[in-house]
């Protein structure tokens, strides 16, 4: 009976987007944008402009995605942790389009990571120490460190290594931030091996990311 009922479910109609469409033109407040994409209008525009050279499509197709669309599709996936199909259905794009866009935006962001995220110099460390001391009265602090589990779909290879102590699949992430909340260090690993990597990892910068 359930299988028969599924045959009669209405098909999800994809919203058509045409060349030059900018989802930022929709009447969303910064709070609403933040709820959906984890960034406000100004920050999304900044990211789009930074990635424009890599993401702008040299095509006359009416349905070519704008840079803003691509960035917001990727941000929606990053911020929600949803599956490609769910993001596509929610925003009106095919699953294959979401997959391609997320890959392209991610590659463009990674290519620029060293431009924005840098391990602090000795002079910057001293500035950070003063700022943390003024905020909390705690001396000789150059950064705040914390970790979290990022929920992922079960991988096909080495699946047991990604099961954390709470029983779900995740990647363990460690981040260090400066007094302004900018990430200066980022480390990811399997949930079972991060403890062995932390002591050596914090002594040098590696792949990093930016947080507003």
From TrEMBL:
Transmembrane segments: none annotated. Residues 145-186 form the DDE Tnp4 domain. Its cofactor is a divalent metal cation. It comes from the Eukaryota. One of its GO terms (cellular component) is cytoplasm. Pfam families: DDE_Tnp_4. Transposase-derived protein that may have nuclease activity. Does not have transposase activity. Belongs to the HARBI1 family. This is Putative nuclease HARBI1. It comes from Mytilus galloprovincialis (Mediterranean mussel).
